[in-house]
Design brief:
It is built from 23 helices and 9 strands. It is α/β, with parallel strands linked by helices. The strands form 3 sheets. Strands 2-3-1-4-7 form a 5-stranded parallel β-sheet, with helices on both faces. A two-stranded antiparallel ribbon has the order 5-6. Strands 8-9 form a two-stranded antiparallel sheet. Strand 5 and strand 6 form a beta hairpin. Helix 2 crosses helix 4 and helix 13 crosses helix 18.
Amino acid sequence: MTKKIKIKQLSSDATINLALDTISINKQALIFVNTKRSAEKTAENIAKRIKANNKELNKLSEEVLNVLPRPTKQCERLAKCIAKGVAFHHAGLHAKQRTIVENAFRESKVRIIATTPTLACGLDLPAFRTILRDLKRYGHRGLQYIPVLEYHQQAGRAGRPKYDSFGEAICIASTEHEKEEIYRRYIQGEPEDIYSKLAVEPVLRTYVLSLIASGFTNTKQQLLKFFEKTFWAYQFKDITYIETIIDRMLSLLMEWGFISQSEFVSADEINTTAYKTTPLGNRVAELYIDPLTAHYFVSSILSSHKKKLIAFSFLQLVAHTVEMRPLLRTKVKELEFIQDKLTYYEHYLIDKEPSLYDPEYDEFIDSVKTALFMQDWIDEKDEEYLLETYNIRPGEIRVKLDNADWLLYALEELTRIVGLHYLIKEIKKTRLRLKHGIKEELMSLIKLRGIGRVRARKLYANKLKNLADIKKASVTTLSQILGTKVALGIKKQLGQSIANPVDKNQEGLKKY
């Protein structure tokens, strides 16, 4: 349903006017924009128009600001917006910050959220209005209109039955022609067809291997019978072509050593080929990674035999996988910096650098940039540095680190199966450093509960470099460095009495 509404023109920006009008009628709104930067800028522009000094909002603002040990500029921007009852939301926010924003919106403390499509589905929020400011997004073919299905998801956030009897979905057009195009495309347009994810090869490879590993199917005929009942087959209709794809998947899994032909078949399948997973293939299925990634890992580490490998070797290897996409994109102005770093790490790379004219070269360079960001993380650079250097936000940092940890674990398991046990220690060390964001020298200190990268660095700076040094230190010394509660907890973990004598020489302790 469309209707005419009158909005006060308090600004030359229609989005700001709509947001302020929403607040004036005591309602809430989601503003959908196409980039993280736009979400932040839109929220800031609206917040500047609002005068507020609310204790609850000030408390929320402090909470958002202090999620990270050292607040980034993004944290500061969000905190200032929330103090005015406005927020931004996107995948770059820390998970705790996203939760604070969502809960504050549910409780009507925050009235306006400027967001990327992260809030377009899956969340039931009290938005009376959804303001669709950006209906175009940059893709492979430049700036293009978003799909009709995505428009429906965004517009459908308005007027949820739990909160309102009706809602308003408002698209912003700058010209009469644009208005007509939006009406034709989205109001009158039909949603796009939905396609099965089985049509994507990484998904299909994973499912074929899993079906054989689980014993659910063990012949091509059984695989075909299974896939004939899927939405993919219903949609594709050409069973002959599907059979060709399945044949190719089986050939690849055989070639990679993940499946082999079985000697045993049932009586009614005496003339058919049966398959079973090898120990390597079975572990790949359990790890639930793309078999292509597993093959890439195995072939890479086998070819690197007796080569000196360091943490960056493994970080770049896992960065150059399907599971780590999207990678950090390398800008033209960054290319020289990346090339210099690549020259430095060249002798440690497991992954071979392709030719400059190879179609995969750009993706390889992006994998190097992604690995460099993770290398800086384990060299104890904080979120603010990573944001400034790599344009990667705290929420994105955590997603990338979690994915890398999962892939490093898979690499560790595959390395064990192929018998290169001497590499396992180095992979485990890289995982530990990645988890805590620490240099190798802090690895023994991080084993203590309650000690993270910041506290471990404080201990190290004060010449407490291992557990033996900490055992010798008094509670008073530890208290001056870390605080009494943490100091007592550490001594308890080490099985020591907490009634240690006070050090007489406490001068010169570094706070770091």
